[in-house]
Amino acid sequence: MRIVAETGFQPNAIARSLVNKETRIIGVMVPDISNNFFSSLINGIDSIIHEWNYSLFLAISDEEVEKELKYLRLFKEKQLDGMIVASIHFLEQHKHILAENQIPLVVTGHDLPEFDIPTVNVNNVQAAYDAVSYLIAQGHRHIACISGPLWDPPCGLDRLGGYRKAMRAHGIPIPDGFMAEGDFTAESAYEAMGRIFQAQQRPTAVFVASDLMAVGAMNYLHDQGIRVPEDVSVMGFDNLEIASLARPMLTTVHNDPFMYGKAAGEQLLKMLRNEPVERRSVVPHRLVIRKSVSAYEKNRTKE
């Protein structure tokens, strides 16, 4: 130990991993680090794995299939102990690589009934249903929807499905042009809101599949001189920090990404310790009522 102190010797982590058969590194792949949802999710993961002396290897895919495949291969090549991936495409190429990897894996933001892979997700259909039902309870009948990308089953298809389910359950038809697809950016929602307002009927409310897109939709309405919520109510999804910073403050669905990350980290650590793991972890949701939604009857113009 005296020689170690005198020479400043540092153990070789790679050599140690070859002996111990572990790297103490967890691979995490997210599509976009600039999105507060994913940065908070990463913090949730780190809060758990740090306690067990694991480090985090971060990969950012930019929602590009080739990058996703490259990083999945890299995780295997680096012999990482486990991996957590968020919102990837899950095409045939992904399935093939994951089947080959044999690395403990937890997936967030997806439900994968055909795979024996632990997942962490919110009930997107029910959460969207609750959000749209709230708009209906406020007297709205002309409700539009800006969905996430439809290649993303939980955040795209399921949230759109919850919107449709609520409208159908309350016997409300959806006019042509009232559904538009975004890609979770404010710019995409700005354009989608413009397409919706080209429909023959104008909505009195819009359900938007993410808070960032909801802000983009409100920006469009502001630029057109359309007041929120006096003329059009806006409902978001996620309850990110931007929801309380927007003006008016955004009514939204609370969907805690930190809890996603924490739950995913806990599940992965159980796998690494050979403990029983939940096949499907569901993160709870709730509505957060702020200022961007108002009752339609109070603001209806006289005919």
Describe the protein's topology.
Blueprint: H1 2-7, H2 13-20, E1 25-30, H3 36-49, E2 55-60, H4 65-77, E3 82-86, H5 92-101, E4 105-108, E5 119-122, H6 124-137, E6 143-147, H7 153-169, E7 179-181, H8 186-196, E8 205-208, H9 211-223, E9 233-235, H10 241-245, E10 252-254, H11 257-272, E11 280-283, E12 286-288, H12 296-299
Parallel strand pairs: 1-2, 1-3, 3-4, 4-5, 5-11, 6-7, 6-8, 8-9
Antiparallel strand pairs: 10-12
Describe the structure.
It is a single chain. This protein has about 300 residues and is of the alpha/beta class. It has two domains: about 1-120 and about 255-285, Response regulator (Rossmann fold), CATH 3.40.50.2300; about 125-255 and about 290-300, 3-Layer(aba) Sandwich (Rossmann fold). It contains twelve helices and twelve strands. The strands form three sheets. Strands 2-1-3-4-5-11 form a six-stranded parallel beta sheet. The longest helix has 17 residues, at about 155-170. It starts with a helix and ends with a helix.
